[in-house]
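Extended Data, panel c. Modelled sequence:
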Amino acid sequence: MPAPTSYALIATDLDGTLLRADDTLSDRSRTALARATAAGARHLVVTGRPAPRVRPLLDDLGAGGLAVCGQGAQLYDAGADRLLWSVTLDRELAETALGKIEAEVGQLYAAVDQDGVDGLTLIEPGYLMPHPTLPAVQVPCRDDLWAAPISKVLLRHPSLSDDELASAARGAVGSLATVTMSGPGTVELQPCGITKATGLALAAEYLGLSSSATIAFGDMPNDIPMFDWAAHGVAMANAHPELKAVADEVTLSNEDDGIAVVLERLFGRGKGWGDWEAPVPGSAPAVAPASASAATRVGRQ
């Protein structure tokens, strides 16, 4: 029988967390998630990817329920293939924010994720997709990025590190947008006040669950708000130092089935995994769980 656990909601990032580098889910992780859901827990994907880039992965996971996409800007119903809730980034504000950042750091290369279940990822000349498996359409010039409503802007700089670019962007844009760093080569602008935590809180509300019953897994600074909201935050061994610093626990890497190791400890092990050891909790200071609150409803722009 599964070990008793108070976690009714399992929130997982995808890239660098649940998925391996080749975008696949290991058999061990798949089995651990299935065992947890059989015990009554709900698994919720919480990702920076927009809904159209998540749909094939959810099909592979057999997940027909909700997913939080676009860094919290989209609540996607995979079964119905529709957005239950979405927030767009005002395109004039986005263009202004880009200009302010470029005034500080020089030329940037930009891309956008369009809103909607069929939205495209558009890239301007010079922008290199950090994740080569994700499809993108190159447009002739930056002005073409603003042709349709967008959920976020992705930024790259020819020489600055991700940390340097994110820091400069935060200083330049102020309240125009929220700046996040969600992976190697992935600094993003999204609607002000929107984070993975706002999307996760809204999804939990739909499911009738609370932050006190949530365990969250992640690997990058964009997962910090999610960790603040959840009762327990687990960083991967490959996680960014900023996330490890606020995690309640550090598990093995995404390549070493770090999520499965924790879920096996909580819900029991399936057959065939031998004597895998549960991870030793990290020495990072624990974060007091934030109280549950409904996500702010922000109208379309």
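The chain has a mean pLDDT of 88. This feature is highlighted in the accompanying rendering.
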